[in-house]
User: Which sequence fits this backbone?
Protein backbone atom coordinates (compact mmCIF):
# COMPACT_ATOMS: atom_id res chain seq x y z
CA UNK A 1 0.00 0.00 0.00
CA UNK A 2 1.32 3.42 -0.98
CA UNK A 3 1.05 6.43 1.30
CA UNK A 4 -2.09 8.36 0.36
CA UNK A 5 -0.72 11.83 0.96
CA UNK A 6 2.24 11.52 -1.39
CA UNK A 7 0.63 9.50 -4.13
CA UNK A 8 1.18 10.38 -7.80
CA UNK A 9 -2.32 9.75 -9.12
CA UNK A 10 -1.34 10.05 -12.77
CA UNK A 11 1.42 7.47 -12.63
CA UNK A 12 -0.78 4.39 -12.68
CA UNK A 13 -3.04 5.86 -15.37
CA UNK A 14 0.04 6.54 -17.51
CA UNK A 15 1.36 3.02 -16.87
CA UNK A 16 -1.93 1.40 -17.91
CA UNK A 17 -2.12 3.46 -21.08
CA UNK A 18 1.49 3.05 -22.14
CA UNK A 19 1.72 -0.67 -21.35
CA UNK A 20 -1.62 -1.21 -23.08
CA UNK A 21 -0.08 0.02 -26.30
CA UNK A 22 2.74 -2.51 -26.23
CA UNK A 23 3.02 -6.02 -27.53
CA UNK A 24 3.89 -8.78 -25.09
CA UNK A 25 7.52 -8.59 -24.02
CA UNK A 26 8.04 -5.02 -25.23
CA UNK A 27 9.26 -2.41 -22.76
CA UNK A 28 8.50 1.20 -22.05
CA UNK A 29 10.46 3.82 -20.11
CA UNK A 30 8.31 5.64 -17.56
CA UNK A 31 9.68 8.71 -15.76
CA UNK A 32 9.24 8.76 -11.98
CA UNK A 33 9.51 11.76 -9.71
CA UNK A 34 12.37 10.19 -7.78
CA UNK A 35 10.35 9.69 -4.61
CA UNK A 36 10.09 6.47 -2.66
CA UNK A 37 6.32 6.68 -3.08
CA UNK A 38 6.59 6.64 -6.88
CA UNK A 39 8.93 3.67 -6.80
CA UNK A 40 6.64 1.82 -4.40
CA UNK A 41 3.64 2.54 -6.60
CA UNK A 42 5.20 1.35 -9.85
CA UNK A 43 6.51 -1.75 -8.06
CA UNK A 44 3.09 -2.53 -6.58
CA UNK A 45 1.32 -1.95 -9.90
CA UNK A 46 3.72 -4.23 -11.78
CA UNK A 47 3.27 -6.98 -9.19
CA UNK A 48 -0.49 -6.69 -9.28
CA UNK A 49 -0.86 -6.42 -13.04
CA UNK A 50 1.60 -9.17 -13.95
CA UNK A 51 4.00 -6.82 -15.72
CA UNK A 52 7.74 -6.73 -15.08
CA UNK A 53 9.66 -3.84 -13.55
CA UNK A 54 12.96 -4.44 -15.34
CA UNK A 55 14.95 -1.71 -13.61
CA UNK A 56 14.89 1.86 -12.33
CA UNK A 57 17.82 4.03 -13.39
CA UNK A 58 18.01 7.79 -12.82
CA UNK A 59 14.32 7.92 -11.87
CA UNK A 60 13.22 6.23 -15.09
CA UNK A 61 11.45 2.90 -14.71
CA UNK A 62 11.71 0.34 -17.49
CA UNK A 63 8.59 -1.80 -17.50
CA UNK A 64 8.04 -4.86 -19.67
CA UNK A 65 4.56 -5.94 -20.74
CA UNK A 66 3.81 -9.39 -19.40
CA UNK A 67 5.71 -11.42 -16.86
CA UNK A 68 9.44 -11.78 -16.87
CA UNK A 69 10.38 -14.26 -19.59
CA UNK A 70 11.99 -17.52 -18.56
CA UNK A 71 15.70 -16.65 -18.64
CA UNK A 72 16.52 -20.29 -19.27
CA UNK A 73 13.99 -20.80 -22.07
CA UNK A 74 16.59 -21.02 -24.84
CA UNK A 75 19.16 -23.05 -22.92
CA UNK A 76 19.81 -26.74 -23.13
CA UNK A 77 19.18 -28.47 -19.80
CA UNK A 78 22.89 -28.85 -19.09
CA UNK A 79 23.46 -25.13 -19.81
CA UNK A 80 21.23 -23.94 -16.99
CA UNK A 81 23.49 -22.23 -14.47
CA UNK A 82 24.20 -24.47 -11.52
CA UNK A 83 23.73 -27.70 -13.45
CA UNK A 84 27.47 -28.26 -13.86
CA UNK A 85 30.20 -27.31 -11.42
CA UNK A 86 33.77 -26.78 -12.54
CA UNK A 87 36.65 -27.08 -10.10
CA UNK A 88 40.21 -26.03 -10.87
CA UNK A 89 42.16 -28.62 -8.91
CA UNK A 90 45.43 -26.75 -9.54
CA UNK A 91 46.97 -24.23 -11.92
CA UNK A 92 50.45 -25.67 -12.49
CA UNK A 93 50.93 -27.67 -15.67
CA UNK A 94 53.56 -29.72 -17.45
CA UNK A 95 52.81 -27.74 -20.62
CA UNK A 96 52.89 -24.01 -21.42
CA UNK A 97 50.31 -23.77 -24.19
CA UNK A 98 50.50 -20.43 -25.95
CA UNK A 99 46.74 -19.90 -25.72
CA UNK A 100 46.08 -21.11 -22.18
CA UNK A 101 43.09 -19.19 -20.87
CA UNK A 102 44.25 -19.38 -17.23
CA UNK A 103 48.02 -18.86 -17.73
CA UNK A 104 48.96 -22.37 -16.57
CA UNK A 105 52.53 -23.54 -17.11
CA UNK A 106 55.33 -25.30 -15.23
CA UNK A 107 56.10 -21.90 -13.68
CA UNK A 108 52.54 -21.23 -12.49
CA UNK A 109 51.89 -21.51 -8.75
CA UNK A 110 49.95 -24.64 -7.88
CA UNK A 111 47.03 -22.90 -6.07
CA UNK A 112 45.44 -26.29 -5.36
CA UNK A 113 41.93 -26.67 -4.02
CA UNK A 114 42.92 -29.75 -2.03
CA UNK A 115 40.95 -32.87 -1.32
CA UNK A 116 39.16 -31.51 1.75
CA UNK A 117 37.67 -28.53 -0.07
CA UNK A 118 36.87 -30.64 -3.13
CA UNK A 119 35.05 -33.15 -0.92
CA UNK A 120 33.03 -30.40 0.75
CA UNK A 121 32.26 -28.74 -2.58
CA UNK A 122 31.11 -32.05 -4.05
CA UNK A 123 28.87 -32.68 -1.09
CA UNK A 124 27.36 -29.19 -1.17
CA UNK A 125 26.99 -29.47 -4.94
CA UNK A 126 24.62 -32.38 -4.51
CA UNK A 127 22.50 -30.38 -2.08
CA UNK A 128 22.51 -27.38 -4.43
CA UNK A 129 21.15 -29.40 -7.33
CA UNK A 130 24.35 -29.75 -9.36
CA UNK A 131 24.22 -32.82 -11.58
CA UNK A 132 27.77 -33.03 -12.94
CA UNK A 133 31.23 -32.18 -11.63
CA UNK A 134 34.11 -31.23 -13.89
CA UNK A 135 37.71 -31.21 -12.67
CA UNK A 136 40.31 -29.26 -14.57
CA UNK A 137 43.62 -27.48 -14.17
CA UNK A 138 46.53 -26.88 -14.84
CA UNK A 139 47.26 -30.51 -15.25
CA UNK A 140 45.41 -32.46 -12.55
CA UNK A 141 47.71 -35.47 -12.87
CA UNK A 142 50.53 -33.40 -11.36
CA UNK A 143 48.71 -33.73 -8.03
CA UNK A 144 49.95 -36.69 -5.98
CA UNK A 145 46.52 -37.24 -4.39
CA UNK A 146 44.41 -36.89 -7.55
CA UNK A 147 42.86 -40.34 -7.18
CA UNK A 148 41.43 -39.46 -3.76
CA UNK A 149 40.23 -36.14 -5.03
CA UNK A 150 38.49 -37.76 -8.01
CA UNK A 151 36.95 -40.39 -5.73
CA UNK A 152 35.50 -37.60 -3.55
CA UNK A 153 33.64 -36.45 -6.64
CA UNK A 154 32.66 -39.71 -8.32
CA UNK A 155 31.15 -41.09 -5.12
CA UNK A 156 28.50 -38.33 -5.25
CA UNK A 157 28.08 -37.28 -8.89
CA UNK A 158 29.08 -38.16 -12.45
CA UNK A 159 32.42 -36.47 -13.02
CA UNK A 160 34.60 -35.39 -15.93
CA UNK A 161 38.37 -35.00 -15.55
CA UNK A 162 40.23 -32.79 -18.01
CA UNK A 163 43.82 -33.75 -18.77
CA UNK A 164 46.43 -33.52 -21.49
CA UNK A 165 46.98 -37.28 -20.96
CA UNK A 166 50.71 -36.95 -21.33
CA UNK A 167 51.56 -38.24 -17.87
CA UNK A 168 49.66 -41.55 -17.87
CA UNK A 169 52.42 -43.87 -16.84
CA UNK A 170 54.00 -45.20 -13.66
CA UNK A 171 52.45 -43.92 -10.42
CA UNK A 172 50.02 -41.69 -12.28
CA UNK A 173 48.77 -44.57 -14.40
CA UNK A 174 48.20 -46.47 -11.16
CA UNK A 175 46.08 -43.54 -9.91
CA UNK A 176 44.07 -43.65 -13.12
CA UNK A 177 43.66 -47.37 -12.69
CA UNK A 178 42.00 -46.78 -9.30
CA UNK A 179 39.42 -44.30 -10.66
CA UNK A 180 35.75 -45.25 -11.19
CA UNK A 181 35.22 -46.05 -14.87
CA UNK A 182 31.45 -45.98 -14.51
CA UNK A 183 31.36 -42.48 -13.01
CA UNK A 184 34.32 -40.75 -14.64
CA UNK A 185 34.82 -39.45 -18.19
CA UNK A 186 38.27 -38.33 -19.27
CA UNK A 187 38.35 -35.24 -21.46
CA UNK A 188 41.66 -35.08 -23.28
CA UNK A 189 42.99 -32.10 -25.21
CA UNK A 190 43.97 -32.64 -28.84
CA UNK A 191 43.94 -29.84 -31.38
CA UNK A 192 44.62 -31.41 -34.77
CA UNK A 193 44.71 -34.68 -36.71
CA UNK A 194 48.46 -34.35 -37.29
CA UNK A 195 51.23 -33.16 -34.96
CA UNK A 196 52.04 -29.84 -36.61
CA UNK A 197 49.28 -27.52 -35.32
CA UNK A 198 48.91 -29.19 -31.95
CA UNK A 199 52.65 -29.10 -31.26
CA UNK A 200 52.94 -25.51 -32.44
CA UNK A 201 50.66 -24.40 -29.59
CA UNK A 202 51.41 -26.99 -26.96
CA UNK A 203 55.04 -28.01 -27.41
CA UNK A 204 57.15 -30.48 -29.35
CA UNK A 205 55.98 -34.11 -29.35
CA UNK A 206 52.93 -33.23 -27.26
CA UNK A 207 50.54 -34.47 -30.00
CA UNK A 208 52.17 -37.88 -30.15
CA UNK A 209 52.03 -38.26 -26.37
CA UNK A 210 48.43 -37.03 -26.16
CA UNK A 211 47.30 -39.58 -28.75
CA UNK A 212 49.16 -42.27 -26.83
CA UNK A 213 47.39 -41.06 -23.67
CA UNK A 214 44.00 -41.32 -25.35
CA UNK A 215 44.75 -44.92 -26.27
CA UNK A 216 45.95 -45.67 -22.74
CA UNK A 217 42.77 -44.24 -21.22
CA UNK A 218 40.65 -46.24 -23.64
CA UNK A 219 42.61 -49.37 -22.85
CA UNK A 220 41.94 -48.74 -19.15
CA UNK A 221 38.24 -48.83 -19.98
CA UNK A 222 37.44 -45.14 -19.67
CA UNK A 223 35.06 -43.21 -21.89
CA UNK A 224 37.23 -40.58 -23.56
CA UNK A 225 36.04 -37.22 -24.82
CA UNK A 226 38.43 -35.18 -26.96
CA UNK A 227 38.37 -31.40 -26.72
CA UNK A 228 40.07 -29.25 -29.34
CA UNK A 229 40.78 -25.55 -29.17
CA UNK A 230 40.79 -24.02 -32.63
CA UNK A 231 41.40 -20.58 -34.08
CA UNK A 232 38.09 -19.46 -35.61
CA UNK A 233 39.51 -19.65 -39.15
CA UNK A 234 40.08 -23.40 -38.80
CA UNK A 235 36.42 -24.23 -38.29
CA UNK A 236 36.07 -24.64 -42.05
CA UNK A 237 38.46 -27.61 -42.11
CA UNK A 238 37.05 -29.86 -39.43
CA UNK A 239 36.25 -32.98 -41.39
CA UNK A 240 39.76 -34.49 -41.52
CA UNK A 241 40.02 -33.94 -37.78
CA UNK A 242 36.66 -35.58 -37.14
CA UNK A 243 37.64 -38.53 -39.36
CA UNK A 244 40.83 -38.93 -37.35
CA UNK A 245 38.88 -38.89 -34.07
CA UNK A 246 36.41 -41.40 -35.55
CA UNK A 247 39.34 -43.70 -36.26
CA UNK A 248 40.54 -43.24 -32.68
CA UNK A 249 37.13 -44.51 -31.55
CA UNK A 250 35.90 -41.19 -30.20
CA UNK A 251 32.14 -40.94 -30.57
CA UNK A 252 30.91 -37.86 -32.42
CA UNK A 253 29.14 -36.66 -29.27
CA UNK A 254 32.49 -36.85 -27.50
CA UNK A 255 34.27 -34.68 -30.05
CA UNK A 256 34.18 -31.21 -28.49
CA UNK A 257 35.53 -28.49 -30.73
CA UNK A 258 35.60 -24.95 -29.33
CA UNK A 259 36.94 -21.62 -30.49
CA UNK A 260 40.06 -20.02 -29.10
CA UNK A 261 39.26 -17.42 -26.45
CA UNK A 262 41.09 -14.14 -26.01
CA UNK A 263 41.87 -14.88 -22.39
CA UNK A 264 44.94 -15.71 -20.32
CA UNK A 265 48.11 -15.77 -22.45
CA UNK A 266 46.26 -15.90 -25.76
CA UNK A 267 46.72 -12.81 -27.92
CA UNK A 268 43.83 -13.61 -30.23
CA UNK A 269 40.46 -15.31 -30.15
CA UNK A 270 36.88 -14.62 -29.14
CA UNK A 271 36.23 -11.82 -26.71
CA UNK A 272 34.19 -13.37 -23.91
CA UNK A 273 32.52 -11.24 -21.27
CA UNK A 274 30.14 -11.90 -18.42
CA UNK A 275 27.39 -10.51 -20.61
CA UNK A 276 28.18 -12.80 -23.53
CA UNK A 277 28.90 -16.02 -21.64
CA UNK A 278 26.33 -18.40 -20.28
CA UNK A 279 27.79 -18.98 -16.82
CA UNK A 280 29.33 -22.29 -15.85
CA UNK A 281 30.10 -21.90 -12.19
CA UNK A 282 33.78 -22.42 -11.59
CA UNK A 283 35.62 -22.83 -8.31
CA UNK A 284 39.32 -22.20 -7.84
CA UNK A 285 41.45 -21.86 -4.74
CA UNK A 286 41.01 -18.10 -5.15
CA UNK A 287 37.26 -17.85 -5.50
CA UNK A 288 34.14 -18.48 -7.53
CA UNK A 289 34.27 -17.46 -11.18
CA UNK A 290 31.65 -16.97 -13.88
CA UNK A 291 33.13 -19.46 -16.34
CA UNK A 292 36.14 -21.79 -16.58
CA UNK A 293 37.56 -19.80 -19.48
CA UNK A 294 38.00 -16.81 -17.18
CA UNK A 295 39.01 -18.48 -13.93
CA UNK A 296 42.19 -16.42 -13.64
CA UNK A 297 40.60 -13.04 -14.41
CA UNK A 298 39.17 -10.73 -11.79
CA UNK A 299 36.61 -9.29 -14.23
CA UNK A 300 34.71 -12.57 -13.95
CA UNK A 301 35.29 -13.20 -10.26
CA UNK A 302 31.92 -13.65 -8.57
CA UNK A 303 33.05 -13.98 -4.94
CA UNK A 304 36.07 -14.95 -2.88
CA UNK A 305 33.79 -17.02 -0.63
CA UNK A 306 33.66 -20.65 -1.76
CA UNK A 307 31.23 -21.65 0.96
CA UNK A 308 28.38 -22.09 1.20
CA UNK A 309 28.36 -23.20 -2.43
CA UNK A 310 24.61 -22.71 -2.73
CA UNK A 311 25.02 -18.98 -2.06
CA UNK A 312 27.59 -18.65 -4.84
CA UNK A 313 25.34 -20.53 -7.27
CA UNK A 314 22.37 -18.35 -6.38
CA UNK A 315 24.45 -15.22 -6.89
CA UNK A 316 25.53 -16.38 -10.36
CA UNK A 317 21.93 -17.18 -11.26
CA UNK A 318 20.77 -13.80 -9.99
CA UNK A 319 23.38 -11.98 -12.09
CA UNK A 320 22.61 -14.06 -15.17
CA UNK A 321 18.89 -13.34 -14.93
CA UNK A 322 19.63 -9.63 -14.49
CA UNK A 323 21.95 -9.63 -17.53
CA UNK A 324 19.32 -11.38 -19.63
CA UNK A 325 16.62 -8.95 -18.55
CA UNK A 326 18.79 -5.96 -19.46
CA UNK A 327 19.83 -7.53 -22.76
CA UNK A 328 16.22 -8.27 -23.69
CA UNK A 329 15.22 -4.72 -22.89
CA UNK A 330 18.17 -3.30 -24.81
CA UNK A 331 17.43 -5.50 -27.80
CA UNK A 332 13.97 -4.02 -27.97
CA UNK A 333 15.27 -0.49 -27.61
CA UNK A 334 17.79 -0.88 -30.41
CA UNK A 335 16.29 -3.04 -33.13
CA UNK A 336 18.68 -3.23 -36.07
CA UNK A 337 16.24 -4.41 -38.67
CA UNK B 1 -8.77 -30.44 -46.17
CA UNK B 2 -11.40 -27.79 -45.44
CA UNK B 3 -10.91 -24.09 -46.00
CA UNK B 4 -9.86 -22.40 -42.76
CA UNK B 5 -12.48 -20.34 -40.99
CA UNK B 6 -11.56 -16.66 -41.16
CA UNK B 7 -11.96 -14.79 -37.88
CA UNK B 8 -12.04 -11.01 -37.76
CA UNK B 9 -10.68 -9.04 -34.83
CA UNK B 10 -9.96 -5.38 -34.17
CA UNK B 11 -6.30 -4.48 -33.61
CA UNK B 12 -6.70 -2.30 -30.54
CA UNK B 13 -3.22 -3.21 -29.24
CA UNK B 14 -0.16 -4.91 -30.80
CA UNK B 15 -0.83 -7.81 -28.46
CA UNK B 16 -3.80 -8.75 -30.65
CA UNK B 17 -1.32 -10.18 -33.17
CA UNK B 18 0.29 -12.36 -30.52
CA UNK B 19 -3.08 -13.50 -29.20
CA UNK B 20 -4.47 -14.50 -32.58
CA UNK B 21 -1.29 -16.14 -33.77
CA UNK B 22 -1.49 -18.23 -30.61
CA UNK B 23 -5.13 -19.12 -31.15
CA UNK B 24 -4.44 -19.94 -34.82
CA UNK B 25 -1.62 -22.24 -33.75
CA UNK B 26 -3.97 -23.95 -31.31
CA UNK B 27 -6.56 -24.51 -34.02
CA UNK B 28 -3.81 -25.70 -36.36
CA UNK B 29 -3.75 -28.91 -34.33
CA UNK B 30 -7.05 -29.71 -36.08
CA UNK B 31 -9.74 -30.57 -36.85
CA UNK B 32 -10.89 -27.03 -37.67
CA UNK B 33 -8.23 -24.73 -38.98
CA UNK B 34 -8.65 -20.99 -38.80
CA UNK B 35 -6.89 -17.82 -39.81
CA UNK B 36 -7.51 -14.24 -38.80
CA UNK B 37 -7.88 -10.78 -40.32
CA UNK B 38 -7.35 -7.63 -38.29
CA UNK B 39 -9.41 -4.47 -38.68
CA UNK B 40 -8.79 -0.94 -37.47
CA UNK B 41 -12.31 -0.54 -36.07
CA UNK B 42 -15.52 -2.49 -35.46
CA UNK B 43 -17.42 -0.78 -38.24
CA UNK B 44 -15.07 -2.18 -40.86
CA UNK B 45 -15.18 -5.58 -39.22
CA UNK B 46 -18.96 -5.86 -39.17
CA UNK B 47 -19.10 -4.64 -42.77
CA UNK B 48 -16.66 -7.44 -43.69
CA UNK B 49 -18.77 -10.01 -41.84
CA UNK B 50 -21.93 -8.89 -43.66
CA UNK B 51 -20.07 -8.94 -46.98
CA UNK B 52 -18.94 -12.53 -46.38
CA UNK B 53 -15.26 -11.56 -46.27
CA UNK B 54 -14.85 -13.11 -42.83
CA UNK B 55 -16.72 -16.03 -41.30
CA UNK B 56 -16.76 -14.97 -37.67
CA UNK B 57 -16.27 -11.59 -36.02
CA UNK B 58 -14.84 -11.12 -32.53
CA UNK B 59 -17.27 -8.34 -31.63
CA UNK B 60 -17.77 -5.99 -28.73
CA UNK B 61 -21.24 -5.77 -27.28
CA UNK B 62 -22.08 -2.68 -29.35
CA UNK B 63 -20.81 -4.38 -32.51
CA UNK B 64 -23.05 -7.35 -31.64
CA UNK B 65 -26.08 -5.12 -31.14
CA UNK B 66 -25.42 -3.36 -34.45
CA UNK B 67 -24.91 -6.68 -36.26
CA UNK B 68 -28.21 -7.92 -34.86
CA UNK B 69 -29.87 -4.73 -36.11
CA UNK B 70 -28.38 -5.06 -39.59
CA UNK B 71 -29.28 -8.74 -39.95
CA UNK B 72 -32.77 -8.44 -38.51
CA UNK B 73 -31.71 -10.68 -35.70
CA UNK B 74 -30.45 -13.46 -37.95
CA UNK B 75 -26.84 -13.46 -36.72
CA UNK B 76 -25.62 -15.85 -34.04
CA UNK B 77 -23.40 -15.43 -31.01
CA UNK B 78 -21.15 -18.48 -30.75
CA UNK B 79 -19.08 -18.03 -27.61
CA UNK B 80 -17.55 -15.48 -25.28
CA UNK B 81 -15.06 -15.16 -22.45
CA UNK B 82 -16.12 -16.01 -18.93
CA UNK B 83 -15.24 -12.40 -18.10
CA UNK B 84 -17.63 -11.19 -20.81
CA UNK B 85 -20.59 -12.60 -18.93
CA UNK B 86 -19.97 -10.53 -15.79
CA UNK B 87 -18.87 -7.20 -17.21
CA UNK B 88 -19.80 -4.05 -15.25
CA UNK B 89 -19.68 -0.30 -15.47
CA UNK B 90 -18.15 1.43 -12.47
CA UNK B 91 -18.86 5.01 -11.44
CA UNK B 92 -16.00 6.58 -9.49
CA UNK B 93 -15.30 9.94 -7.89
CA UNK B 94 -12.54 11.39 -5.83
CA UNK B 95 -12.37 9.83 -2.41
CA UNK B 96 -14.54 11.72 0.04
CA UNK B 97 -16.94 13.05 -2.60
CA UNK B 98 -19.83 11.34 -0.82
CA UNK B 99 -21.97 11.12 -3.96
CA UNK B 100 -23.76 8.16 -2.47
CA UNK B 101 -25.18 6.83 -5.74
CA UNK B 102 -26.22 7.93 -9.22
CA UNK B 103 -28.69 10.42 -7.79
CA UNK B 104 -25.77 12.26 -6.26
CA UNK B 105 -24.61 13.21 -9.75
CA UNK B 106 -27.42 15.73 -10.14
CA UNK B 107 -25.84 19.07 -10.90
CA UNK B 108 -22.39 17.47 -11.13
CA UNK B 109 -19.99 16.80 -13.99
CA UNK B 110 -19.59 13.22 -15.26
CA UNK B 111 -16.71 12.25 -17.55
CA UNK B 112 -17.67 9.62 -20.11
CA UNK B 113 -15.48 7.57 -22.42
CA UNK B 114 -15.73 7.45 -26.19
CA UNK B 115 -19.24 7.86 -27.54
CA UNK B 116 -19.36 4.32 -28.91
CA UNK B 117 -18.10 2.71 -25.71
CA UNK B 118 -20.91 0.65 -24.26
CA UNK B 119 -19.37 0.48 -20.80
CA UNK B 120 -18.11 4.05 -20.54
CA UNK B 121 -20.73 6.07 -22.45
CA UNK B 122 -23.89 4.33 -23.73
CA UNK B 123 -24.75 2.23 -20.70
CA UNK B 124 -23.80 4.96 -18.18
CA UNK B 125 -26.32 7.29 -19.78
CA UNK B 126 -28.87 4.46 -19.68
CA UNK B 127 -28.22 3.91 -15.99
CA UNK B 128 -28.65 7.64 -15.29
CA UNK B 129 -32.03 7.59 -17.01
CA UNK B 130 -33.04 4.52 -15.06
CA UNK B 131 -32.09 6.40 -11.89
CA UNK B 132 -34.51 9.17 -12.84
CA UNK B 133 -31.95 11.71 -13.99
CA UNK B 134 -33.17 13.62 -17.02
CA UNK B 135 -30.97 15.01 -19.77
CA UNK B 136 -29.45 18.19 -18.41
CA UNK B 137 -29.48 17.01 -14.81
CA UNK B 138 -25.86 15.90 -15.17
CA UNK B 139 -23.21 17.80 -17.12
CA UNK B 140 -21.59 15.29 -19.46
CA UNK B 141 -17.91 15.59 -20.34
CA UNK B 142 -17.49 13.30 -23.33
CA UNK B 143 -13.93 12.17 -24.08
CA UNK B 144 -13.80 10.60 -27.51
CA UNK B 145 -10.19 9.50 -27.53
CA UNK B 146 -10.71 6.04 -29.00
CA UNK B 147 -13.83 6.09 -31.12
CA UNK B 148 -14.25 3.00 -33.28
CA UNK B 149 -12.63 0.71 -30.75
CA UNK B 150 -15.71 0.75 -28.51
CA UNK B 151 -13.59 1.56 -25.50
CA UNK B 152 -11.43 -1.48 -26.07
CA UNK B 153 -8.26 0.44 -25.51
CA UNK B 154 -9.57 1.98 -22.34
CA UNK B 155 -7.71 5.14 -23.28
CA UNK B 156 -10.80 7.32 -23.12
CA UNK B 157 -11.64 5.78 -19.73
CA UNK B 158 -8.19 6.69 -18.45
CA UNK B 159 -8.71 10.18 -19.82
CA UNK B 160 -11.99 10.32 -17.92
CA UNK B 161 -10.14 9.47 -14.72
CA UNK B 162 -7.56 12.15 -15.51
CA UNK B 163 -10.42 14.61 -15.86
CA UNK B 164 -11.48 13.74 -12.33
CA UNK B 165 -7.92 14.21 -11.04
CA UNK B 166 -7.70 17.56 -12.84
CA UNK B 167 -11.07 18.66 -11.39
CA UNK B 168 -12.56 18.91 -14.85
CA UNK B 169 -15.15 16.36 -13.78
CA UNK B 170 -16.64 15.24 -10.48
CA UNK B 171 -16.98 11.60 -11.49
CA UNK B 172 -16.14 9.17 -14.28
CA UNK B 173 -17.77 6.07 -15.74
CA UNK B 174 -15.53 3.23 -16.80
CA UNK B 175 -15.47 -0.50 -17.45
CA UNK B 176 -14.61 -2.96 -14.71
CA UNK B 177 -11.53 -3.99 -16.74
CA UNK B 178 -10.06 -0.50 -16.56
CA UNK B 179 -10.91 -0.28 -12.87
CA UNK B 180 -9.07 -3.57 -12.33
CA UNK B 181 -6.14 -2.40 -14.46
CA UNK B 182 -5.49 0.59 -12.21
CA UNK B 183 -5.65 -1.65 -9.15
CA UNK B 184 -9.19 -0.67 -8.11
CA UNK B 185 -8.98 1.60 -5.07
CA UNK B 186 -6.22 -0.47 -3.50
CA UNK B 187 -3.05 0.82 -5.16
CA UNK B 188 -3.85 4.50 -4.82
CA UNK B 189 -5.62 4.97 -1.51
CA UNK B 190 -7.35 8.29 -1.34
CA UNK B 191 -7.46 8.74 -5.12
CA UNK B 192 -10.80 7.31 -6.24
CA UNK B 193 -13.82 5.69 -4.67
CA UNK B 194 -16.65 3.75 -6.26
CA UNK B 195 -20.07 5.25 -5.65
CA UNK B 196 -22.12 2.99 -7.93
CA UNK B 197 -21.64 -0.33 -9.73
CA UNK B 198 -23.91 -1.51 -12.52
CA UNK B 199 -25.50 -4.94 -12.69
CA UNK B 200 -23.43 -7.40 -14.69
CA UNK B 201 -23.94 -7.56 -18.44
CA UNK B 202 -22.42 -9.30 -21.45
CA UNK B 203 -19.55 -7.81 -23.40
CA UNK B 204 -17.75 -9.39 -26.38
CA UNK B 205 -18.78 -12.44 -28.39
CA UNK B 206 -17.91 -14.34 -31.54
CA UNK B 207 -20.58 -13.42 -34.09
CA UNK B 208 -21.47 -15.41 -37.22
CA UNK B 209 -24.11 -15.15 -39.92
CA UNK B 210 -26.63 -17.94 -40.54
CA UNK B 211 -24.89 -18.68 -43.83
CA UNK B 212 -22.06 -20.29 -41.88
CA UNK B 213 -23.13 -23.90 -41.55
CA UNK B 214 -23.51 -25.68 -38.24
CA UNK B 215 -21.17 -28.36 -39.58
CA UNK B 216 -18.39 -25.78 -39.70
CA UNK B 217 -19.36 -23.85 -36.57
CA UNK B 218 -19.86 -26.74 -34.14
CA UNK B 219 -16.35 -28.26 -34.24
CA UNK B 220 -14.80 -24.78 -34.11
CA UNK B 221 -16.78 -23.84 -30.99
CA UNK B 222 -16.08 -27.21 -29.42
CA UNK B 223 -12.35 -26.75 -29.97
CA UNK B 224 -12.50 -23.18 -28.64
CA UNK B 225 -14.26 -24.23 -25.44
CA UNK B 226 -11.61 -26.90 -24.93
CA UNK B 227 -8.83 -24.36 -24.39
CA UNK B 228 -7.57 -25.10 -20.90
CA UNK B 229 -6.19 -22.51 -18.48
CA UNK B 230 -4.32 -25.31 -16.74
CA UNK B 231 -2.49 -26.19 -19.95
CA UNK B 232 0.83 -24.29 -20.09
CA UNK B 233 0.54 -24.05 -23.86
CA UNK B 234 -2.89 -22.40 -23.73
CA UNK B 235 -2.57 -20.30 -20.61
CA UNK B 236 -0.46 -17.38 -21.94
CA UNK B 237 -2.98 -16.75 -24.71
CA UNK B 238 -5.93 -16.92 -22.34
CA UNK B 239 -4.19 -14.58 -19.91
CA UNK B 240 -3.44 -12.06 -22.63
CA UNK B 241 -7.03 -12.17 -23.86
CA UNK B 242 -8.29 -11.78 -20.29
CA UNK B 243 -10.17 -14.98 -19.54
CA UNK B 244 -9.86 -18.31 -17.84
CA UNK B 245 -12.48 -20.15 -19.89
CA UNK B 246 -14.36 -19.68 -23.15
CA UNK B 247 -18.09 -20.17 -22.52
CA UNK B 248 -21.33 -20.28 -24.49
CA UNK B 249 -22.93 -16.83 -24.85
CA UNK B 250 -25.35 -15.40 -22.32
CA UNK B 251 -27.65 -13.41 -24.58
CA UNK B 252 -29.79 -12.07 -21.75
CA UNK B 253 -26.72 -10.04 -20.75
CA UNK B 254 -27.23 -7.84 -23.83
CA UNK B 255 -30.77 -6.69 -22.97
CA UNK B 256 -29.63 -3.51 -21.21
CA UNK B 257 -27.51 -2.45 -24.16
CA UNK B 258 -30.31 -3.13 -26.67
CA UNK B 259 -32.54 -0.91 -24.49
CA UNK B 260 -29.87 1.79 -24.23
CA UNK B 261 -29.22 1.85 -27.98
CA UNK B 262 -32.94 2.12 -28.64
CA UNK B 263 -33.63 4.90 -26.15
CA UNK B 264 -30.56 6.90 -27.21
CA UNK B 265 -31.32 6.49 -30.91
CA UNK B 266 -27.91 5.04 -31.71
CA UNK B 267 -27.72 4.07 -35.36
CA UNK B 268 -27.28 0.45 -36.45
CA UNK B 269 -24.37 1.46 -38.67
CA UNK B 270 -21.27 3.55 -38.18
Assistant:
Amino acid sequence: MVNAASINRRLVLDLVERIGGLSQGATVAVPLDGSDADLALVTAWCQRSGNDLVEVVDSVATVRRGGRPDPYAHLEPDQIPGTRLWMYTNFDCNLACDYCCVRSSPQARRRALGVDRVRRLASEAVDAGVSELILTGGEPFLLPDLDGLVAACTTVLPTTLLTNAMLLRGRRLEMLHRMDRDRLVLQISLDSPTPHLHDRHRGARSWERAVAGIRTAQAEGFRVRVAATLEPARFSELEPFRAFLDDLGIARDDQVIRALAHRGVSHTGLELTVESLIPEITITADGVYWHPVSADDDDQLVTRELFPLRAAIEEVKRRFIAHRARADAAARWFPCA
Amino acid sequence: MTTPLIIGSVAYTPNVVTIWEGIREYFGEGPTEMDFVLFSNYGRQVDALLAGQIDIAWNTNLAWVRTVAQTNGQCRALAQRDTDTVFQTIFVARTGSALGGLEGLKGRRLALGSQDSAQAAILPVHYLRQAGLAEGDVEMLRINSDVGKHGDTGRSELDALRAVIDDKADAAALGINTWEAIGRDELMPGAFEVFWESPTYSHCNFTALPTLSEARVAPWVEKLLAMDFGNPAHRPILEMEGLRQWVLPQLEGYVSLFDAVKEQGISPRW
Remarks:
- The first strand of chain B starts at residue 5 and ends at 10.
- DSSP finds nine helices and twelve strands in chain B.
